[in-house]
Amino acid sequence: MTTNSPIPYPFVAIVGQEDLKTSLILNVINPGLSGVLIRGEKGTAKSTAVRALADLLPEIEVVDGDPFQSDPRDPRAMAPDALARHLAGERLPVRRRKVRVVELPVSATEDRVIGTIDLETALKEGRKVIEPGLLAAAHRGILYVDEVNLLDDHVVDVLLDSAAMGVNTIEREGVSLSHPARFTLIGTMNPEEGELRPQLLDRFGLCVQVEGLTDPARRVEVVKRRAAFEDDPAAFAERWAGETEKTRQAIAAAIAAYPRVKASDAILYAIADRSLKLGVDGHRSDIVMLKAAKALAAWAGRDEVSDADVDAAAALALAHRVRRRPFEGIVREGGREKGEG
Amino acid sequence: MGRVTPDGARPPRRVYPFPAILAQEEMKLALLLNAVNPAIGGVLVRGEKGTAKSTAARGIRELLPPAGGASPPFVDFPLGATEDMVIGSIDFERAIRDGEPRFQPGLLARAHGGVLYIDEVNLLDDHLVDSILDAAESGENIVEREGQSLRHPARFILIGTMNPEEGELRPQLLDRFGLAVSVGGETDPAARVELLRRREAFDGDPDAFAAAWREQTAALGRRLAAARERLPDVLIPAHLAAFIGEICLRNHVAGHRADLAVARAARAHAAWHGRGDVNADDILAVAPMALLHRMRAGEPEMPPPPPPPPMEEPDDRETEESAEPPPSEAPEGEEARENGESAAAPPPNEGKGCDGGDAGDGKDDGGGDVPGEAQEIGATYAVRPIAQQTKDQIPRAGSGRRSRSRSASRQGRYVKSTPRRTERNDLALDATLRAAAPHQRFRRFAATRDLAVLIWPDDIREKIRERRVGNFLLFVVDGSGSMGARRRMVETKAAIMSLLLDAYQKRDKVAMVCFRGAGAETVLEPTGSIERAARLLADLPVGGRTPLTAGLAEAAEVLRRALLKEPAVMPLVILMTDGRANAALGGGIARDEALRAAGALGRRFPTARFAVVDTEAPGIVRLALARQLATALDAAYFKVEELRAEDLVSIAKSCER
Q1: Which CATH superfamily is domain B230-346 in?
Q2: DSSP secondary structure, B483-515, as one string
Q3: Any CB–CB contact under 8 A between B597 and chain A?
Q4: A259 closest CA partner among A216, A303, A199, A219
Q5: Over 90: is that where the pLDDT of B565 sits?
Q6: Which residues of chain B lie closer than 8 angstroms to A259, CB-CB?
């Protein structure tokens, strides 16, 4: 289920949509931001951007052959099997690979998402063996749900469950297993087709509204690039390779810099103040805003969060958390962009 | 694809230290009290998202004193669990290997002696909640399935969290949680900042953070252990036992569970504070947590505590109390005793509201349809004629949540299995294997083919699936001139809005047909976007004649298309009109034509349910045309002025199923 289409459209070649691109990059810098919800009409490069992101993702180490993407160095990010081997003093085989984008199709069934019993082994050998689900594949990676608002209610419940705990628990069809499942949740939706449940909405760290470009010159540019890409994807990607590599390095630098970024007390108060003024539920908004602001500072190469970082972080983190009457659309702060629901 | 054998080592979790949780004192207290005395019956933590609900529930685990050298179990109840995994079932691996049916314990067995934690308990399937609460209450799990018949102890601290935005728990389930607390976000900036700092520190380095709090966590754990030890010796003086009864009576809580919960929690509270006697403060501290979720509305009201008896000698105390066993013992005995302890209060079945709780609470949904009691509450409109009328006319669905239905297709959640009845080809492999497993050794002799597992037709089990069926609400709104008079439309719109609010929570689909002037029009195609419906509603115009037949015809068309797309959907058609049809489609009398059309509509869509909301202005002369319409449609009938938001929602509910 990994999206490894031959050659994706280069992320850096996407025209405009700065909020979208920034929010995705911030999530790569700090996966603790727990994702982005991308709201917008059809044909606004939502899916393109997410698929293109795969190309920019850093490498991680996984236990080779482990379907649960266990981290060979962190027992907390190990599935039971790997953990048992680790505790037994075994040296776990390490493989380096890119962080993955795992796609969760809207039609996915619950057992496909959670994992289920492996029918073949059960029948042939009478043994209970687990066939890991998409949540196992997405551990330490990105879980991408296109049209997340159309997802079956049961699947949403399961997603909420594991997104909240960072653990997926399989308790079905005679098998029973928990394994870590920490993923960055990226969803796209067209608000015309109905809103998300508030609880799921809150699980997305950031939320961006994308709209079609209004500047004719840029629209032309979009079409031109798209045509060039479809003509010869390899050549097009090659043309952007330099830019892509630069972005990749910048992301790597930001990831390295992130732990050093400091936020002053004034900044923390500014963050709390914004949540209070807007009357958001709970505290997740504060936590996400701080992380986003730090990631923004790291991305800009600074080691101190600035007021501007907080502004930008607030724009991304607050819109979907404002306590609103049920029928009010999600409106961006300051009326900069209106995303009517 | 790699595969893994289940039941390996459990991965360590990042657990935020309990004492590092800022504020939320009530929630922390409720959790601690349950840890001191699991017989309290669990905690339900209600609150908005992002308020440390889950964090606190997980944190309590670290505090529990280890039992028998191992830390007590903490079972995270997954929403996707199937029934056999909860209750337990045959272990087919063992059955095939050894040829004997062996019981494989479920989650309830695993939680014994520890914590059973259900995140988002309001989203859990009802039949699972029932099984869990049965076990929580009786302290044992009774298994009667797949030829297995056994019972095993299942005593655990039940912790549930929920966000009311996602829908409420049924009142009879609410009642079975010993305590309930509400949590909210912190509004003091300094506190928020401190919280943010701690969270950041924890996320940055969970181990260092846990280490920094280790001493405090350990101290809390020691205090908990000491309180548990002290608990059996904690006494409730007789005059305070009466006080508990008075509190419960004063607040009109149904059933005697509240009395028990207050008494148990008060004793835990005293033990937690190192005292051997319950005092009035203990009771006042815990009573709100035990009462709030059992009351109809409002804040609990506390009567002044009674003065202590003049000469309080130790032998004045209720002596039975001293025989209190440790909390890990069977609760039955304790239950009996605590009933005795609250003997000063009226016996549970004397008061009207105290109907025992577990008997027959399937129908009382707390909506106040117990006659007689309403008068003393004062806020009476919840029991106005309409509520009783609904109760008498239509069986209530009881649940205020989305409708669920057994799914005939292969979609939906696998909830349990059944011997094959149909040819749906929806094999429940696990159940089939379990059914076949014990016979394997015997069947080997008769085997004609060399198969690993020999499955005979009798073994075949099918999945029973359940899916939530969203309602489809079709509003058919009269927009004629008569609706404009005396602000009828304002009332009508308010009514529709209230229904939309309900639809929003249940994620129903809505559509709207409006008829006025020359004809009818579908102003809103079926959509899941309630927001659009609400915006549209604001702009809905009024004026012109009343082409009721055209409206019904248009409604039929919308229904037809909706059912074509999704045959499983159960439409609820809400016709809002005064019934004064004055524009016919054909040449006849408009009103008769409309009535005929209504009758035809009802017959054409047998799965649809109908409700007529009469918008006729109140006055001396009522034409009651809408009433006739309702009869023709075989619809529930309501007058718009009787409808407050609460009642309206109950219409939708009463029409369900």
Answers
A1: Magnesium chelatase subunit I, C-Terminal domain (1.10.8.80)
A2: HHGGGHHHHHHHHHHHHHHHHHHHT-EEEEEEE
A3: no
A4: A303
A5: no
A6: 204
